[in-house]
Amino acid sequence: MTAPTALLVLAHSRSTSLTARAADRARRRLERGGFTVDLLDLHAEDFDPRMTIEDEPAWTDPGKGYSAGTEAHMRRIEAADVIVVVFPVWWFGLPAILKGWIDRVWNYGFAYGRSTPRLHGKRIVWIGLAGYSEEHFTSTGWDESLTRTLTVGISNFCDIDDVKVHLVYGTVPDQTARAGHAEDILATAEAGLDRMLQPMVA
User: Fold this and answer.
1) C-beta atoms surrounding 61 within 10 Å
2) Please, what sign has the CA dihedral across residues 193, 200, 151, 195?
3) 57 pLDDT band (50/70/90 cuts)?
């Protein structure tokens, strides 16, 4: 039996960041679960988040071909059984490089706009690291807003129904500098992924 494939997307510029460390934990957890992991480090691979003319959607042509780089990313998504996205929550949303990846790669005719959806049946896990405490973040409703965007606005819109969003709070440097706190955050992120993946690897 062929091992399932996980596309692990990392959206942080520093390889030593807490986000990158959380992604590494996710990679190890996925591998322990029997997944073959395709790590897509958007910064390390120098992904350009700016929309180009070549990658603008053609609303009358769902079969339009896109740039070679974008098509390569599309193939990596298609090859994955599960997509795990690890990112810092900036301005209560996605960092620019990740938003640009969605804009350019999750494009018309690929992720949506076809009578037979190409991403149907895939699973996706979003792991966001937020600086604010959980109390502060949730008191203003930002957890609901971000979760709705990731679940309904992106995943469900592209016919992915199995969606999990896990937000990890209190990740700003002055908090993570406390002894053991960074490790607690990483353990929380991994535990969230473990709960979400359990039905897939049981």
Assistant:
1) 11
2) negative
3) very high
Residue range(s) defining the domain that contains residue 14: 5-201
List the one residue out of 170, 152, 169 whose CA is nearest residue 161: 152
Write the CATH number for 140.
3.40.50.360
Structure tokens at 80: 């994955």
Enumerate the β-bridge partners of residue 112.
108
Q: Is 166 helix (H, G, I), strand (E, B) or coil?
A: strand
pLDDT score at 116:
84
CA distance 196 to 202: 11
The number of distinct structural domains making up the chain is 1
Composition of the chain by helix, strand, coil, percent to 5: 40, 20, 40
Distances in whole angstroms, Cα of residue 63 to Cα of each of 31, 53, 135: 35, 16, 46
